Amino acid sequence: MFNRVRDIPRSCVTTGFVGREQALIELFATTFTTSEGPDEGALIADLVRDLLAETPTEDIRVFCAEDEGNAIGAAIFTRLTYSGDPHIVFLLSPMAVAPECQRQGIGRALLSYALAALRSDGIQIAITYGDPKYYGQVGFVPITEDQARAPLPLSLPHGWIEQSLTEEKMPVLQGPSTCVSALNRSDVW
Q1: Which residues, 6+ apart, have CB-to-CB distance to 14 below 8 Å?
Q2: What are φ and ψ of residue 27, in 5° steps?
Q3: Does 129 score more than 80 pLDDT?
């Protein structure tokens, strides 16, 4: 098991999900059931199943941390399109680290790896909807919906956060946004 962020070798972070769909669904179900209860675990498991099955390849990036071939962490990024804006934006949702592997730096290492990979793919902005304190550890900062409109109403607007993946500051993204179809449901916002 890994004990510190620097202990996670690059070879233990993989991209893609083909052939690992069920393992990823189970990772998210277990993680969210443990932290938020069985209803949330089922909700997120269904979301992950739909994301992996329905999202076009060009609109999804999946990063997975593994230990001895077992998925211990995963981050799913999908395209977020702003109708009046040319920037390439991806949304992180959801992310999970297996309960027994939390508080070891695996999530931070996984996110650092994923954000570097997105940057090298030419993606300009990453946005997520989560705990600003946690995601702030890897460079996410709060934004308002005046800067980047969410696709659906936010139940906790303080959790709307972003990170520029270029040398430029976060621009004001123009127009309404559209997420991938699996995320176009109010119960996850």
Answers
A1: 63, 64, 66
A2: -60, -50
A3: yes
Which neighbouring-strand residues pair with 63? 15, 75
Q: How far apart are CA 97 and CA 22, in angstroms?
A: 16
Express each pLDDT in 148-184 by its tens digit.
999 999 999 999 999 999 999 999 999 999 999 999 9
Distance CA 18, CA 10 (A): 19
pLDDT at 38 over 90: yes
**Token digits for 27?**
């990772």
One-letter identity of residue 40: E
**Dist CA 17 CA 103 (whole Å):** 24
Question: What is the radius of gyration, based on Cα positions, of the chain?
Answer: 16
Of the candidates 110, 109, 112, 74, which has an alpha carbon nearest to the alpha carbon of residue 93? Answer: 74
Average pLDDT, the chain: 90
Q: Report DSSP state, residue 51.
A: H
**Identity (one letter) of the amino acid at 111?**
L
Q: What is the pLDDT of residue 20?
A: 82
User: Are 76 and 64 in contact, with CB atoms under 8 Å apart?
Assistant: no
Question: Could you give the CA distance from residue 97 to residue 73 in angstroms, rounded to a whole number?
Answer: 4
* pLDDT at residue 13, as a whole number: 57
